[in-house]
Write a structure and sequence with these properties.
- With 127 residues, the protein is an alpha/beta fold.
- The protein has two domains: 57 residues, Signal recognition particle alu RNA binding heterodimer, srp9/1 (2-Layer Sandwich); 56 residues, 2,3-Dihydroxybiphenyl 1,2-Dioxygenase, domain 1 (Roll).
- The protein has two helices and eight strands; from the N terminus they run βαββββαβββ.
- The strands form two sheets. It has a four-stranded mixed beta sheet with strand order 1-4-3-2, with helices on one face. It has a four-stranded mixed beta sheet with strand order 5-8-7-6, covered by helices on one side.
- The protein starts with 9 loop residues before the first strand and ends with a strand.
């Protein structure tokens, strides 16, 4: 057990089409950009949280994304009345909706959608 690890503060989404993914995430999120290079983009996603995009270029990065590739689901928390508002905004932006707003048995109201490379994203609220 890594007893010195106390929190997760940095999540990275591996990307094939970096330019397309940068545009998508910049248009989707209002997080301030921390660092941007040709092959990466990092946002300040909270007081102690960074969300980054990085081009797949290392041997161990794997190839491809979406349902055929293991991945990470990113969830963005909002207030309960905001889930439907976010859903409407996603529709207006032409973003692929995977599951429209619904109350889940675990006590969340959710909407699931996909980024351009098929990664699963979620807006949720505790209800």
């Amino acid at each position: 057990m890594l007893t010195k690890v106390k929190q997760l503060n940095y999540a990275i989404v591996l990307c094939d089409d970096m330019d397309r993914m940068k545009v998508f995430y910049k248009d989707l999120l209002s997080f301030p950009v921390e660092v941007e290079t040709e092959t990466s983009l990092s946002f300040r996603a909270g007081p102690a949280v960074s969300l980054a995009l990085r081009k797949r270029e290392r041997e161990y990065d794997g190839r491809g994304s979406g349902p055929q590739s293991p991945g990470v689901q990113l969830a963005f928390r909002v207030e309960p009345d905001e889930v439907s508002k976010c859903y409407e905004q996603l529709i207006e932006m032409g973003i692929t909706i995977l599951d429209p707003p619904a109350d889940q048995p675990r006590g969340h109201r959710t909407v699931y959608f996909a980024d351009p490379e098929g990664n699963i994203l979620e807006v949720y609220a505790e209800i």
